[in-house]
């Protein structure tokens, strides 16, 4: 693998900056301010007022396996993107293809926003970390959430401020190789008698610039080279995002509470890709020089109204009505130049997609006793999604070469009924039993394909247990069993083709849907051991196993002279793995006043697909190994620093007997420092992606007629961010 020629100077600069922050940490420690006492360490860390039990205590007492990451940990590294926060969490990896749990991505992972499913196409990075109160990771399903979560669920809970009065302003500037990018966050909140209100807003416009290399080559059955090409790409992009999250809470007497919360968001993505191909052997592609221009605008509006009522002394009724509207306009252009250098193809694509969802959820909780709660509820909704796509191809002189005018509509109705029982069976044993029935009815159609109807339902029994060896023990064991599923996305059911712009082949095929797709159904087993250390520390070792039926793979074939891939159900697959999670303070292990916090996690994933020959017949490009190590040092009341290292392993994945993909490992190092200037203001400096590692992947196809391969490698750049925070 070749390294970009500018990598060594950039790494030297990155190492120098990281060393500078370390030296500043030593300066901060030399300040005359005394280090905080051990009892006040959590409150001094980020000046967060702790009013309830810690995350470790909540995890220990929860009858279900739920890893909760609070606001303090979310903001520790001053990330611009929520994806950067998620990749540090146990069992979670973030790749160019999206968020993964236990190495699996796509529809295997359920993403929720305040308990509601995120719409297809929604970018998790469009939510500023500043607007998030906590992140919940649920490796095992629970009945009140959808069980469309074979790998697990990530629930993003938006910020809820209960302070009587708060005024906070944060101003920042970041650089990621594409110029200086501004960012701002504001929080306003207040409380008067029975009404509490808050408004959070965030705006940012990060720019990015990177270089990439694409190597294509093919040979015949005898090994003779048919062609060998190298394409150099330059990418320039900017993403502007604006978020506003208002919330109102009314307390009506002693028994009723009504709340309303919304998320309003605008996101604009503009980028260009310039590609230039050099032929080393054989002939060129159809358009050896080309340019891609993309301009996308996305609007999201989510609003929920919730009512809680206490009934008697032990019962509670909760009801929520919600609406979400998501729309996206994309203007795309592909400009292709012939091998002779003449302008040959002007392709313009305009796409408009809208997604509107209405939901109603409710839950009645009955307190049978102090140790026993029963809950019954429903979760229903309707989603309408429409997409209109117009593609026009014309020559350099304006002569029409082709027109595609297609639409796509999907109506999705869902209804779920659930019951769950949380029971402290004995002082040392907690039991959670859940049952959820979920039905889906989908009508998908277009002018070309007509309307396709699909109906399915899944009954999901769930059981979880927590056992302590003794009442005073700091150890406990968990065991969970659940039936989960993954339903095809509506666009996967439409038998329409999405064409690539250049170089169609087995390593760069067109895509087409399959109306015969069925849901994947999985039985899962989870087990873990937890040992709690000190006040907030723990070490956990967990194991999981899944058996997946009707697993969805991709079929590669030639149709009308073009290589095409389509999803299909392919029998059974198995996956299993281990996750180690540890977080503790140095003072929990040694008699020291140093306020040092450690976090570490490591996940090993293994899977096998029965219908694909081995070796390397892993499931869905599963990440085999991932981990994270972090250290946070509160040097004094006015200075703290942190270092975080993440690893996501690569490897070879066989998709069929002839088709394989491979990727290189990804390593990320982040460094941050925080200075408290006075009681009302602070200054943050953070460096992200200090290692600036080159990322690469390869696709290989080999059959009796020959072989073809495509390697894509891209540079990555270090990000620098400075942020000033002021409490007004």
Keywords:
7% helix, 728 residues, mainly beta, 63% strand, single chain, disordered N terminus
Give a quick precis of the structure.
It is built from six helices and 38 strands. It is mainly beta.
Number of helices: 6
Give the rounded overall mean pLDDT.
Answer: 88
SS-derived structural category: mainly beta
How many beta-strand runs? 38
Anisotropy-based shape:
globular
Radius of gyration of CA atoms, rounded to a whole number: 27 Å
Question: What is the distance, rounded to the nearest whole angstrom, between the alpha carbons of the first and last residues?
Answer: 52 Å
Proportion in helices: under 10%
Beta-strand portion reads over 45%
Biggest sheet record: 22 strands, antiparallel, barrel
Q: Segments where pLDDT lies below 50 for 5+ residues?
A: 1-51
Write the layout of secondary structure elements.
Blueprint: H1 7-29, H2 41-46, H3 55-61, E1 67-69, H4 71-74, H5 82-86, E2 92-95, E3 98-101, E4 109-113, E5 116-117, E6 132-138, E7 152-158, E8 165-175, E9 180-192, E10 195-204, E11 207-220, E12 225-252, E13 256-282, E14 289-311, E15 315-337, E16 343-369, E17 372-394, E18 400-426, E19 429-446, E20 450-467, E21 475-486, H6 490-493, E22 497-498, E23 510-512, E24 520-533, E25 537-549, E26 552-559, E27 562-569, E28 572-585, E29 595-609, E30 625-636, E31 639-648, E32 651-654, E33 659-663, E34 666-676, E35 681-688, E36 695-703, E37 706-714, E38 719-727
Parallel strand pairs: 4-7, 23-27
Antiparallel strand pairs: 1-6, 2-3, 4-5, 6-7, 8-9, 8-38, 9-10, 10-12, 11-12, 11-37, 12-13, 13-14, 14-15, 15-16, 16-17, 17-18, 18-19, 19-20, 20-21, 21-24, 22-23, 24-25, 25-28, 26-27, 28-29, 29-30, 30-31, 31-34, 32-33, 33-36, 34-35, 35-38, 36-37
